[in-house]
Amino acid sequence: MLHVEEGSGNAFDPALGLVRPLDGLEPSEGEPVLTKTAHNAFTTTGLHRLLTERGITEVSVCGIRTEQCVETTARVASDLGFSVLFVTEATATHPLGAPGTPPELPLDELLADPRTLPAEEVIRRTEYALSGRFARIVTIGEALD
To answer: pTM score > 0.70 for this model?
Structure first.
């Protein structure tokens, strides 16, 4: 699953060449590569149909922006009836500024603000919000078992 924002000029604009599977995660021959334009993996992709047609009832969720795209995907998957494994250690995010913080604030200024949530706290809070409600929190090893 790749997130794309065509014509945006940012890192998610496929024209810049940055939207691609990470090295070592290239798809196998015949494996579908879906692109998304929403904050979850279901809304704009046909993923629900693809999984349902294959009889898949459990999904493992990981990726970038733990509290945004990954959490939203877990919640939507749960709402659609899937059993959800949230693989926290296979997610990543960045510190979050307090409400009203300008999005273009340099990282050093963001981190200097005592109201900023460090990435580790964002991840911990995401686990608390999902655990037992929308997903089961698992390690990479547990997800692979």
So the answer is: yes
Same domain, 12 and 60: no
13 by DSSP, 3-state: which? coil
Catalytic residue annotation: 69
Nearest to 1 by CA among 54, 56, 52, 39: 39
Site of tokens 């603000």: 113
H/E segment holding residue 48: helix 47-53
Write the burial class of residue 123 (CB in 10 Å: 0-12 exposed, 13-18 middle, 19+ buried): buried
Q: Which residue, 17, 126, 132, is CA-closest to 62?
A: 126
Classify residue 46: in a domain, yes or no.
no
* Cα 116 from Cα 99, distance rounded (Å): 9
Task: List per-block mean pLDDT (blocks of 10 residues) for the chain, which spans 145 residues.
Answer: 93 92 89 94 97 97 95 98 97 96 94 96 97 97 94
Our count of domains for the chain comes to: 2
